[in-house]
Amino acid sequence: MKHYFFIAFILFLGALAHGQTTADSSSFVPQYDTETNYTLKTKSGSIHTGQVIRETSEFVVLKNKITHRTVEIRKSEIIQNNKSAGRDLSNETMGENLHARNYMFLSSAFLFDEGKVSTNSHWLLLENINYAFNKHWAITLNTVAFYPISLGLNFAYEITEDNYIGGSVFGIGDITSGGNSSALFGYGAQGKFTHGNSNKNLTFSGGVIGLNSDLFYRNSTSAFVNMAFISAAYCSRFKKNVALNIEGWYLPELTSGFGGIGFKFIGNEVICWTVGCYALINNSNNRVNLDLRAIPVPYFSMSRKFN
């Protein structure tokens, strides 16, 4: 009798375990679409791209269709996931461009790296320093030869897949001001729209900048002269370590603009360099005057990430 009771008890435990497993399986809801390309970023900073071929309650498995390499990632380690367009395999073949925020002078509306400091140095003279409070908000400090000249606040949001909006407000200090003049040299505000992924994208922006009227007039009744501007920039990463950047700016009140073209050399996850040229074009009287001001000026910048 005891023998039969023991067998019944074992069968009961087996049925209970099977029921628990079945309940756990039935409660699992997939988070990822199979046969869809994803770019996943983990807490360690690693970035994986590929097609989802398998998913469990704890893991997701990606397969790169180019290299045929598979990787299993624990879901609890994933901090960011983005779908890749079906026909756009640039993120999958080359990985995410971690330096996509900056073109040359213009920056995109891509989200910030939370809690990180980044710098973008032009000619090793003009330094742009950013600290991101979170992925949507950051503070910016600009310096000339290590002397602070402006302070600003930036924001960025993803509105739909591959579409982002952002902007900034800033104040410019007068480093030459004496006791008899204002310490505020200028101010500005800018809005941005970016479309695309980190490897191929396009940004449009526009805004207004106000500068001390002493730059333009001797006896002005207004302290500042306000000027509107529009700009656009394009990035295309055509090799793993090289991207083409093009940007242009136009100021209607001055009937003038300037633009540049450069190649960004991506060293690693924390540093990159951009080499190119910039030129000023005067379009007064609807004529492009090709004078000394239009001669291209060599351009060089270095971007770094910290923390």
Write the layout of secondary structure elements.
Blueprint: H1 2-27, E1 37-42, E2 47-55, E3 59-63, E4 70-74, E5 78-83, H2 90-94, E6 117-122, E7 126-132, E8 137-144, E9 147-160, E10 163-173, E11 184-196, E12 200-212, E13 224-239, E14 242-251, E15 256-266, E16 271-282, E17 297-306
Antiparallel strand pairs: 1-2, 1-5, 2-3, 3-4, 6-7, 6-17, 7-8, 8-9, 9-10, 10-11, 11-12, 12-13, 13-14, 14-15, 15-16, 16-17
Structure description:
With 307 residues, the chain is mainly β. It has 2 domains: 25-94, SH3 type barrels (Roll), CATH 2.30.30.100; 117-306, Porin (Beta Barrel). Helices cover 10% and strands 53% of the residues. The protein is built from 2 helices and 17 strands. The protein has helices at residues 2-27, 90-94, and strands at 37-42, 47-55, 59-63, 70-74, 78-83, 117-122, 126-132, 137-144, 147-160, 163-173, 184-196, 200-212, 224-239, 242-251, 256-266, 271-282, 297-306. The strands form 2 sheets. It has a 12-stranded antiparallel β-barrel with strand order 6-7-8-9-10-11-12-13-14-15-16-17. A 5-stranded antiparallel beta sheet has the order 4-3-2-1-5. The chain is elongated.
